[in-house]
Design a protein that fits this description.
The complex is a heterodimer. By secondary structure, chain A is an alpha+beta fold. Chain A is 28% helix and 14% strand. In chain A, a hairpin with a 5-residue loop joins strand 4 and strand 5. Chain A is globular, with a radius of gyration of 23 Å. In chain B, strand 4 and strand 5 form a beta hairpin. The C terminus of chain B is likely disordered. At the A-B interface, helix 2 and strand 3 of A face helix 2, helix 3 and helix 23 of B.
């Protein structure tokens, strides 16, 4: 077993001999138009079933709700008033220490790059109301809880640094479900509907759902990556809100974009998942958010359960040692 | 659009309805462009814009008129551009009277026919006359019946000649510029506040942003879609934007223009090669009985040889089309088989045809990729009309509601129709999808893009091409022995294409026919390379003259696929744009009158004096060697009459028209009128609605009373219909797909928290929406994205209704159809229905079922006191209208000729 927490190269950590660059997404929610093409492209490519009961969910234009066994991309829609925008702008400005470039009014003047000193930092025009849209996906964590707790080896780290379920190995035990700090991976229930892939059987009775009962999640289109193709969601995104590439480049692009938005006074912009010292060692899929992660249904401080294993072992070891010492002491004391 | 410095999206929800095209807006924004969205609703487009301005549906001409007024009053218009390239300096005849003078009517209104005689709007002429249409004036009633405006898709309205009178100082009160200035003087920011519900501060922001981003160095682009067109004065909304863009010099330049966002993949193509009743390919009009009886009359009416520009050559385009269709049977002796063309005998648009069905005048109906039971205005009228047919053919991907209304439609439930009583024989023929057939799409930017076939169609599914080819063969076989003259057009038609092993014709052979070829001379048989090669002597063919060049050298240029980053800014090797692969129309206007770019930043096409020709990033839209300073005698006519500063080469005088002396049947200048149904009184004129709108006073098409008339309070709210990203129009391509259906599973309405509180509507509960035509139910989305507007001292609530759902039993998801609420009132220029604004009431709970639904609708009608006269007055206040303050002699001061 490799390293359980902190910064690392997960591919090397998984003992891949051919060291491909780690691949990942950068989802820039500031240019997302909420078209959900990513959700559809994902389902089409991966032949995932329809889910849900075909009723309005009661959550703005979001009728998907969350990521799950059959939904590997999910676009959240959040309607906000002016107060919340002001708060987000403040909290984003305060966040600059969290692995983000220090740009913006609170920073000392000396640290502002010369070409941005003259930048217009008046807030943008649409300030009384906004509608946030954000496409969520599996984070492909540096330290993946699902992978680390899987007892069968069904989950594995690919040569691209991503985390993928092997459908034919998974036995559906569900341990991974509790292991994911983001609630991404789930077992596919057979209450969902398989979608026909050819037009002839369109009106046939619903055939059996594939992979029912076993754990399912985004593969970062592993089958496309091995053919040097872009994942389906990024390929379909019309505004390049979903970018795909080498993880380091994605993080770099994300940092630049945040700096750019801060320079324009949009200090609500912040990165999510780009901090390699967080509880999952940073994520493979990074996000640019315009508000606190909780607003989008993301955990503010995700922590992989196995990150605490060494500490737990240390504590357990100390306890064992302590108990042994106590026993010895008692024994010795008894002798005395 | 990616080159724009400012983009105004109005009458369009571009991010939701054109998400792929929206990449160019995203690119412009990334380069620093300002994006402003003006729409009744805060949509996904607003969410990524710099600013959203909520507007009262249907009030756009007030806003655009106020921008025109702002630009003129503050002297912000682009003087050099406007004086040289538009008709600002042209004099209008002294008989012209403006709507300002006549209480909202222009001179020439005929209250009996509800239409204009537009002869008084004409340009002035030396010799004390006016410049008429070449075939004489056509009364607005006749022009409206044939939706004559549709024929202006590639060339401007014809004129007898282009020898106009000008005053380049623009001081003469009869110059277009002075008329324009007077016409919009009362379109003020206060009027915008009181009519549109947009504050003066927001108006100032908008006006400032647009004008600061226009001029030599910067350009502003407008984008619209059916939010502008689907009104009783829809064509005038777009005219208003065109006037503003011409005044600001934003036409023919990179990042400028007005993008008409077309609804789906090849809707542009379906008007270029028309599916419309009144057009032939390339925007040649369908001949009308009485006006176009002979080829000579037809050609004379379409264009004069004495007018300027390339439309003067419309005879060559027409005769080449006839040669393409009838080949050797089209000869000089039989006027190139002109009499094989059918003649229009009146209004035969889609809504008129449905009314004809109800009168049992129509036997059969083909529906191809259309679901009128859900997607057309007044769904009930559509379905009842179909129940009068003898036969109905539905060719579609799925068993859409237009194929099943006879067993599970709303009228079956209400008891108005009984399946066993319906005599219509319905045939369903399965169609191939776009990936199952090859062909071209022509998109918003006039770009033809070729699609290759990915898989063969399953089972009995066929391409349109194969279906029509086979249908043609079968009809011709049946008629083979006919001696009847009327069968000659079918029997003489060129109808021979190579087919594949499944019998599907080769679409490239059709493209080659559309492109056209030489028939005689050394190049006989070879494809033409440009429409300028077309001749009126029968020596060339072209199935659609504007597409000539797409198959030049026998190469399918629509299939060009060189990525944009591997070529110059205009990317000419991606697809092929009509005409002549030009990416920006009228691009000669991107250079100043001397032929120099207006600025380095907006350099596009310019005159190269050394080479003696126009050069640049795009194919110059001008005679290639016509030098900037050239001043030919305008009487020579045609392209040779164009001056070096006449960039609008398809206009009969070479200029961009601020004022339209011809071509529009409802007024030469955009003027604000309220919609057929409106809770607001027209604050500008006593005339409430457009006097020339096409109205249908029928018991099955009642209208709600407008503001200030009894019963208006019964239908107090405005509703507007629209699309969502997740669905495709009437749902035929989306409600049968689980992946799309699950994303937007149910019909809903969008209301403001204020309206929800006023009417007791529960979030995500049910509501019933009642109009004078029908009542439907929908789930309620209560959202701050809908804002009540303060208009003229009272609150206007607007309700949003997506129109994707329909009542049926075959789709994955179904629901009530928003279009059932609409009535039929049409724009007279193009016969588009008014579906973006109408009146309704809303109340909590589901709608009644069966006969009780009809009873509810009737109860509302009775309470409002509706009759077929309601809302259908032509002239609202006859006492106040049509009176000329200049007195009985009809002459205003200041002739100045």
């Amino acid at each position: 077993m490799g390293q359980l927490s902190g910064p690392t190269d997960p591919t090397a950590d998984a003992h891949w001999e051919h060291n491909h660059p780690r691949k990942g997404f950068f989802t820039d929610t500031s240019i997302c138009i909420g078209c959900k093409a990513c959700e559809v492209a994902c389902k089409e490519w991966n032949h995932n079933p329809q889910d849900g009961n075909l009723e309005l969910l009661g959550s703005s234009y979001d009728n998907t709700g969350s990521l799950g066994a059959s939904t590997w991309r999910h676009v959240a829609f959040i309607e906000q008033g002016q107060d919340r925008i002001v708060e987000a702008r403040e909290s984003g400005r305060a966040l600059v220490s969290l692995g983000m470039p220090r740009i913006g009014p609170p920073a000392p003047a000396a640290s502002v790059p010369a070409d941005l000193a003259e930048a217009d930092t008046t807030p943008p025009d649409t300030a009384d109301f906004r509608w946030l849209m954000s496409s969520d996906v599996c984070k492909h964590c540096t330290h993946a809880g699902c992978l680390d707790v899987c007892p069968t080896g069904a989950l594995f780290r690919t040569e691209f640094g991503t985390v993928v379920v092997q459908d034919d190995v998974c036995n559906g035990c569900g341990t991974c479900v509790a292991g994911c700090p983001f609630g991404v991976i789930e077992r596919r229930s057979n209450g969902t509907v398989k979608v026909s892939t050819s037009r002839e059987d369109q009106h046939a009775a619903h055939p059996e759902v594939p992979n029912a009962g076993i754990a399912q999640k985004c593969t970062l289109c592993y089958d496309r990556l091995v053919a040097d193709e872009t994942p389906a969601c990024a390929k379909a995104c019309p505004t390049t809100s979903i970018k795909f590439g080498d993880h380091d480049d994605m993080v770099e692009a994300a940092r630049e974009r945040v700096a750019d938005l801060h320079a324009k006074g949009l200090t609500e912009a912040r990165l999510y998942g780009a901090n390699e010292n967080d509880g999952v060692g940073g994520t493979g899929s990074v996000f640019l958010l315009l508000d606190e992660p909780e607003v989008y249904g993301l955990p503010p401080d995700p922590r992989v359960p196995t990150a605490d294993l060494p500490k737990m072992y240390r504590r357990a070891g100390m306890a064992v040692a302590g108990m042994a010492a106590a026993a010895a002491l008692a024994f010795l004391g008894g002798r005395a | 659009m990616a080159n724009a410095d400012c983009i105004i999206i109005q009458g369009s929800n571009m991010a939701e309805c054109h998400p792929v095209g929206f990449q160019w807006v995203a690119e412009a924004k990334a380069r620093g462009a300002k994006v402003i969205h003006i729409d009744p609703r805060f949509t996904r487009t607003s969410a990524v814009s710099d600013k959203h301005l909520p507007i009262r549906a249907g009030s756009d001409v007030v806003l655009l008129g106020a921008l025109i007024n702002y630009v003129i009053a503050n002297d912000l218009w682009f003087k050099e551009y406007v004086t040289a390239y538009t008709n600002a300096a042209t004099l209008v005849h002294e008989d012209y009277r403006d709507a300002e003078d006549l209480g909202g009517l222009f001179s020439g209104f005929d209250p009996e026919k509800g239409a204009y005689d537009n002869s008084s709007w004409a340009y002035d002429e030396a010799e004390d006359g006016s410049i008429d249409e070449p075939a004489g004036p056509e009364h607005g009633a006749e022009a409206g019946a044939r939706a004559a405006g549709d024929a202006l898709g590639s060339g401007g309205p014809p004129l007898e000649h282009a020898e106009v009178l000008r005053d380049d100082t623009l001081q003469n009160p009869r110059t277009v510029f002075q008329i324009l200035k007077r016409h919009y003087a009362r379109y003020t920011p206060e009027m915008v506040r009181d009519m549109c519900g947009i504050s003066e501060a927001d108006f100032a922001y908008l006006a400032k942003t647009i004008t600061e981003n226009s001029g030599r160095d910067r350009t502003t682009c407008f984008a619209y879609a059916v939010g502008w067109t689907q009104h009783s004065l829809g064509a005038q909304f777009i005219r208003a934007a065109a006037i503003l863009q011409l005044l600001l010099g934003n036409v023919g330049r990179p990042g400028g223009g007005i993008m008409a966002l077309r609804g789906h993949a090849s809707i542009q193509g379906s008007t270029d090669i028309p599916t419309l009743f009144n057009l032939l390919p390339g925007y040649l009009p369908m001949p009308s009985a009485g006006r176009h009886d002979t080829l000579e009359e037809y050609l004379a009416a379409n264009a004069s040889k004495s007018q300027k520009g390339f439309w003067a050559d419309a005879d060559a385009y027409t005769i080449s089309l006839l040669k393409a269709w009838w080949g050797d049977a089209a000869t000089a002796d039989n006027d190139w088989a002109y009499d094989y063309l059918p003649r229009l005998t009146g209004a035969h648009g889609t809504y008129e045809t449905v009314m004809s069905m109800l009168r049992d005048e129509v036997e059969g109906y083909f529906l191809l990729g259309q679901n009128p039971a859900v997607g057309s205005a007044h769904g009930r009228m559509q379905r009842l009309g179909m129940s009068h047919l003898k036969w109905l053919v539905v060719r579609d991907l799925n068993m859409i509601e237009s194929a099943t209304w006879w067993k599970d439609g709303p009228e079956i439930e209400s008891g108005e129709l009984r399946t066993e009583d319906i005599e219509t024989e319905v045939f369903f023929l399965p169609a191939a999808t776009h990936v199952e057939k090859a062909g071209s799409f022509t998109q918003t930017q006039r770009l033809l893009q070729w699609r290759h076939q990915a898989v063969a169609p399953p089972g009995e599914c066929q391409s349109e091409l194969q279906f029509f080819y086979e249908l043609g063969h079968r009809i011709r076989e049946k008629l083979a022995d006919s001696q009847d003259e009327r069968d000659r057009p079918l029997l003489d038609l060129t109808w021979d294409y190579p087919t594949d092993e499944h019998g599907d014709p080769d679409p490239e052979s059709v493209l080659a026919e559309i492109n056209g070829r030489h028939l005689t001379g050394p190049d006989a048989g070879k494809p033409l390379s440009a429409y300028t090669e077309l001749r009126a002597d029968g020596s060339t063919t072209a199935g659609c003259w504007i597409y000539t060049g797409v198959y030049a050298e026998g190469i399918n240029h629509a299939a060009s696929r060189k990525p944009g980053q591997e070529q110059g800014p205009a990317a000419p090797e991606w697809g092929w744009a009509w005409p002549a692969n030009r990416r920006i129309l009228y691009n000669r206007a991107s250079a100043d009158p001397a032929g120099k770019p207006w600025s380095e930043r907006k350099k596009y096409v310019w005159w190269d004096a050394e080479q003696g020709k126009w050069v640049g990033d795009d194919v110059p839209d001008f005679p290639p060697t016509l030098a900037p300073g050239t001043k030919p005698d305008p009487s020579v006519g045609g392209p040779a009459a164009l001056s070096g500063d006449d960039p609008f080469i398809m206009q009969s005088d070479g200029k961009g028209w601020l004022f339209a002396p011809k071509g529009l049947v409802d007024g030469p200048l955009p003027t604000h009128y309220e919609a057929q149904e409106s809770p607001v009184a027209n604050g500008l004129y006593p005339q409430q609605q457009s006097p020339a709108r096409l109205k249908y006073a029928r018991k099955d098409n009642l209208s709600a009373p407008s503001a200030g008339t009894p019963g208006a309070e019964v239908y107090p709210f405005v509703f507007t219909t629209y699309r969502l990203t997740e669905h495709h129009t009437a749902g035929g391509m989306s409600r049968w797909l689980p992946y799309l259906s699950e994303l937007q599973p149910e019909m809903f309405c969008e209301v403001s928290p204020e309206l929800a509180a006023e009417r007791g509507l529960e979030p995500y509960g049910w509501a019933t929406i009642i109009s004078p035509r029908s009542a439907i139910e929908a789930k309620v989305l209560v959202t701050d994205r809908m804002r009540p507007l303060a208009v003229g001292g009272h609150t206007v609530h607007q309700i949003g209704l997506p129109y994707h759902w329909g009542v049926g039993s075959n789709a994955v998801v179904s629901g009530d159809a928003a279009n059932d609420l609409l009535g039929v009132t049409l724009d007279p220029n193009v016969q588009i229905q008014e579906s973006k604004v109408a009146s309704c009431d809303i109340r909590p709970g589901r709608r009644p079922r069966g006969k009780d639904l009809l009873a509810l609708v009737a109860e509302y009608q009775a309470r409002a006191g509706l009759t077929i006269e309601t809302g259908n007055r032509t002239v609202t206040a006859p006492a106040a209208e049509g009176k000329d303050p200049a007195g009985p002699d009809g002459h205003a001061e200041g002739g100045g000729k």
